[in-house]
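Throughout our pipeline, every protein is held as a single compact record rather than as scattered files. The record that follows is passed on verbatim for readers who wish to inspect the format:
___
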Amino acid sequence: MIAINNKTILSKQRFTLGHELGHFLIPSHGHKMQCTVKDLGKKTSSKSKVFSSQLLMPPQLLTKRGLLDASPNVSNIIQLKDICDVSFQACANNYINIHGDYLAVVYSHNSIIKYGLNADANPLWLNADRGKALPRGKALPRGSHTSTVDLTKYQSISSDEVDTELWFSPNNNFEYPDTLVEETYVQEDGWVATLLWIDDIEEL
């Protein structure tokens, strides 16, 4: 039996249903999985989140219907979330892999980093402080566009080019541009989603 809180918004209910189905349909999870709050950070739960995202946003279908813009952007994510009836976060987390570019997404609250995700195709290590892993609970990197946005401008979208190594650790095994595109989407109550796009990366 799958229990869903019917008081939450419909898109979250749909994602939860897909998440729980993932526990039963992903072979490595077995068929007697029970997902509780304390299980949410486990690897099996993370795989189920990916399963649910791809179930609600089938990559092949989005590509076949030409729904992905040539260049990744926040407006495209908003468009897709409305089409697929999923949350912005679920859509963005899936989008960075569906699009196929060197992308990452970072979520912050009142200028404090909560977490970030790197696209599978992106070989650079996502960070917010040179040489260190993405520090949850710490301030956004100085010099980033996100650190300058007005948190009161709900639903505003803006972008700028910034130093690549503000967000990614230096890596001598790859050649990449000195700057990247940093695009922000101001959400409710001080939340901001930041889409990072490196134009090209080549292995040396």
In short: The beta strands are 102-109, 112-118, 157-163, 174-175, 179-186, 191-198, 202-203. The CA atoms of residues 104 and 131 lie 17 Å apart. The two ends are 51 Å apart (CA to CA). Confidence is low (pLDDT under 50) at residues 39-44.
